[in-house]
């Protein structure tokens, strides 16, 4: 099993049903030393606005999100969902949990 920290669209129950065919249960957590940056991604019907986690020079910057425990199969589904606009990296959350996040590619 893998830990996934979500700070954006993957927290949506509708998106979870689309990606995993189920709703995930998670725990609130924080990612320290990162900040959110606006990102435009070209989609089927034009450009869409999203956010992406990027490392910050200010260690007091915090991203609030949810950590989920998911299977390797589900993690592979997230890789497809996030596309090549993001890359997956491992981080340590405020709770001490090591988790995957998607950051700027």
UniProtKB/TrEMBL annotation:
<protein>
    <submittedName>
        <fullName>Gamma-glutamylcyclotransferase</fullName>
    </submittedName>
</protein>
<dbReference type="Pfam" id="PF06094">
    <property type="entry name" value="GGACT"/>
</dbReference>
<dbReference type="InterPro" id="IPR036568">
    <property type="entry name" value="GGCT-like_sf"/>
</dbReference>
<feature type="domain" description="Gamma-glutamylcyclotransferase AIG2-like">
    <location>
        <begin position="4"/>
        <end position="103"/>
    </location>
</feature>
<dbReference type="InterPro" id="IPR009288">
    <property type="entry name" value="AIG2-like_dom"/>
</dbReference>
<dbReference type="InterPro" id="IPR013024">
    <property type="entry name" value="GGCT-like"/>
</dbReference>
């Amino acid at each position: 099993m893998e830990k996934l920290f979500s700070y954006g669209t993957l927290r949506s129950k509708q998106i979870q049903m689309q990606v995993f065919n189920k709703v995930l249960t998670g725990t609130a957590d924080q990612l320290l030393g990162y900040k959110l940056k606006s990102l435009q991604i070209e989609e089927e019907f034009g450009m869409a606005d999203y956010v992406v986690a990027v490392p910050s020079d200010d260690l007091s910057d915090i991203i609030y999100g949810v950590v989920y425990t998911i299977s390797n199969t589900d993690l592979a589904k997230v890789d497809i969902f996030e596309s090549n606009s993001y890359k997956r990296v491992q981080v340590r959350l405020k709770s001490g949990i090591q988790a995957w996040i998607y950051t700027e590619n």
